[in-house]
Records
---
Amino acid sequence: MPDRVRAIGAAVGRELRFVELTAGQARERMRARGVADDVADFVLGWHANPPESAYTVVPTVEQVTGRPPRTFAQWVAEHAAAFRTR
């Protein structure tokens, strides 16, 4: 996430900060939004220890679209206007 926030900041031309919540803070925010405890536990566990498939590069994008995939930074640069505050 910190790298993604830096990429968004670079695209919009300003420094952004990433503030990570503790697991307890994140759980309380999810509860406040009506998320069930077992779902919150799953989400927190996934973020703490994502499965290998979450960070394994596969050729699916190019196979489906016929075009090579873009990096997150490339995608953000193309959509920078959506991240700018009004």
---
Amino acid sequence: MANSASAPKPRRLSRRDSSLGDKIFDICNYVLLTCLMIVTLYPFLNTLAVSLNAASDSIKGGIHLLPRDFSLENYKYVFRENTIFTATTISVLRTVIGTIVTVFASAMVAYTISRPEYVLRKFITIAFIITMYINGGLIPNYLLIRDLGLINNFWVYILPGIIGVFNLIIIRSFIEQLPESVIESARIDGAGDFRTFFNIVFPLCLPVLATVALFTAVYQWNSWFDVFLYNSSNVELSTLQYELQKILQNSNTTSSAESAFANSANGSAIKVSPLSIRATMTIVAAVPMIIIYPFLQKYFVKGMTVGGVKG
């Protein structure tokens, strides 16, 4: 009793101390987030400034947030070929079609293996997961694509990656979080599997489907290696990323110094450099995804939060 009576009582924080602590915490948060914003935005803004700067002046360095010698010659060099516009069309088509097909196919398979009454769901899930760790290799994969008749074919961009195991796991985990009573009520009303999926499950899965759609769209838009392997001999099936890769390679190999010259459509000389071409290519490739992301951001955050609860 004596010890308990003599023990010091914990000091209560006054409103003034609490208010001061909140202010210090808010200031630290603002400073940290501002630094994070600068670190995130500066590389992109610097790349944009280099792409809008004259190549001969960019070689000197010292460009930060604004172009020192404004010029559109880098963009004229990148878009000087007519193949760029055809390649852009193919990139848009493979991104749109590939994203839609992948999302629908992955969602249907995920719904199937999420149902407890499906006997083979564990076996099929394990079989899918094994493919994440074991790969046949580049040459067997090429031989398989050749035997399937997909060489010099647009569908080589869509069919081989129609089911992504990572996307499958995310969608399955999201579906398992849905109330079972909703699905059971649909079954009681006489709905079959397809009607239950399209009328009940699919609308409830929009957040995670938007997340998977963003992943797939970014992959499809940025992919160029499959073009090099399977469709490099067919210019009509070339994509924007592959054409930009060829432009960068040409700018590196045709220039012994840090600059190169190219003829524009009107016959005038355009001076470019590998540095300016890399910056321009980065902006051209990134802008479409930057435009799309804000519209999917709220679904992206919710889908990753809920879909990542279970593995």
